[in-house]
Amino acid sequence: MSFSCAAVAAVFVVILSGSHAVTGARVGGMILRQSSSSVQMFTEAPSFRNGAECAAGADGRVDIAMTLDANYLRGTMAAVLSILQHTACPESVAFHFLTAEDDDHGLAAALRASFPFLDLRMYRFDPSRVRGRISRSVRQELDQPLNYARVYLADTLPADVRRVTYLDSDVIVVDDIRTLTSVDLAGHVVAAPEYCHANFSNYFTDAFWTNPALNGTFRGRRPCYFNTGVMVMDVDKWRAGGYTHRVEEWMAVQKQRRIYHLGSLPPFLLVFAGHIRAVDHRWNQHGLGGDNVEGRCRGLHPGPISLLHWSGKGKPWLRLDARRPCSVDYLWAPYDLYRHSSPVIEEW
Ligand SMILES: *[C@@H]1O[C@H](CO)[C@@H](O)[C@H](O)[C@H]1NC(C)=O
Ligand SMILES: *[C@@H]1O[C@H](CO)[C@@H](O)[C@H](O)[C@H]1NC(C)=O
Fold this sequence. Notes:
Family: Belongs to the glycosyltransferase 8 family.
Order of helices and strands: HHEHEHEHHEEHEEHEEHHHEEHHH
Keywords: Glycoprotein, Glycosyltransferase, Membrane, Signal, Signal-anchor, Transferase, Transmembrane, Transmembrane helix
Bound molecules: 2-acetamido-2-deoxy-beta-D-glucopyranose
Distance between the termini: 9 Å
Number of strands: 11
Subcellular location: Endomembrane system
Protein name: Hexosyltransferase
Shape: globular
Radius of gyration: 22 Å
Pfam families: Glyco_transf_8 (PF01501)
Number of helices: 14
């Protein structure tokens, strides 16, 4: 009791003596009234300004697409902050968020509160569009409809978005994102780091490899694994080639006979593996979340790093909160906008 009173008194001393007295008191009052709202859970990021070399207007615009969901909001915030902090042209980055929630206002409001100057565009992704096509994978989170939103980017984004870079919500960018987004696609629809040493056969089941109607799919190409959490897409070519439908067709096959284990990744591999533009591995240090079952710690791969990706079961904010972080999670922590002090106030 006496501890709580002292804590509250301390909070008010800070509020009254600080230069942001009015804001602090208002925010404090809102926390006391509605502690569950996302808006008050995050601090405001610094504002970032374009350097002199940045092209003005639509020419210089960099389009980033991500999904937005309550469970990953903290990751999304950190990803956005990391992108803005490391690019020379932060005001040129447009963020396109796809959300499946009926009420996305809380999530969008939280982003706007933390990034008041962000070029932020919201799109509703209708989960029913994909729900009937999803089959169960090894990890339940991978079966969420929003996980498939990347298949529908070309149908969702406005026509003036000709190229988009899709990013998962568990990434941190530590380099200028424009180096990735301006990659020469050389006529390809998708660019991403690819991994040709990975044993490609393991992503598909025997039902796939032994079916003569299916197992010739990769004939004539050298298929390599790539991770769909970081992809540059030529949206025009995607639309013209009807790639949404091509990916959906493989999801329909999976629904009938189990030809792969994971969620949204294998249908991408079936359509694109061997046909993508390879990007330097530094743009997707994936697997930092550990394996899909236990989420054990994994270290960094050797070589330079521009993007860190906590793919796999473990997420850095959960492990940090549980006080059982992996060492790579300390690389994520500096981008965390979560307001750790709020529980003290909520206790009162
Ligand atoms: C890849 O994995 C399959 C099945 O697990 C195995 O039969 C095959 O020998 C492996 N190939 C290589 C090149 O390691
Ligand atoms: C495809 O399946 C047939 C029948 O099981 C098999 O004979 C053939 O070797 C398979 N082809 C490939 C490329 O795996």
